[in-house]
Each structure stands twice: as C-alpha cells, then as structure tokens.
Specification:
Radius of gyration: 13 Å
Order of helices and strands: HHHHHHH
Number of helices: 7
Number of domains: 1
Number of strands: 0
Length: 115
C-alpha cells in the first residue's frame, strides 16, 4: 500500500459479505475461531465468502476494521432495529462456543459504541 489509504479503500461488499466480516471479527475476538463459531458463520455465508472475508480481515488492523464497520453503517444498519439485529448476530457468534469471554464482552461493547 502507499500509506495513504482511507477507510473507503475497501471492497464494496454485499450484505452477506459484510455480515461475514462482522461475524468473523466477532469470532476472532479471542484470536481463535472455534469449529462452532465457524459453523455458525457458514450457516450465513458460503465457504468461498468465508475464506475471502477471513483473508481480508486478517490483512487489516483493528483501527481499519472499525473504520470499515463505520463506513458500512449507512448501508447495512442505518436504523436502530437493523443495528440491534447485527449486534444480536455478533452476540450469537460470541456464544457459539458457549463462552462469552471478557475479550468478547469488550468487543461487543465496542461494536455497540461504533454501530
């Protein structure tokens, strides 16, 4: 990269790709994607989208990820109801392995604040 990228320098994702991004980000909160977490994501998106978005996510810093989430705010969760639906999906992802760890709680609170 040229060092001058902005938060808009990311692909234009459809809603499934964005949801994959959000869920993978949630799943990776504790640096491990459990088989249960992966299975839950694959109920929403294809294996191809899963791997495509995982690769994209792993190439981003935490700040870049937050900027991407903010940049999609007007597209995929402009209303309170839509925001709540996405936060509910994230929370389900956190609970996929039956453990809502401190790191995951912290990330959930961060998601609530930026969404």
């Amino acid at each position: 990269m040229d060092g001058h990228s902005t938060h808009t320098a990311h692909p234009k994702w459809n809603d499934k790709e964005f949801i994959a991004f959000l869920l993978l980000y949630s799943a990776m909160a504790d640096n491990v994607i459990t088989p249960e977490e992966k299975a839950m994501i694959l109920k929403k998106v294809s294996e191809k989208v899963y791997h495509q978005i995982l690769e994209e996510l792993q190439s981003k810093t935490d700040d870049e990820i937050k900027q991407i989430l903010l940049s999609y705010k007007g597209w995929y969760f402009p209303t309170i109801v839509q925001k709540q639906e996405l936060l509910h999906l994230a929370k389900k992802e956190f609970y996929a392995d039956n453990d809502f760890s401190e790191v995951e709680i912290e990330l959930y609170n961060t998601l609530k604040s930026i969404m």
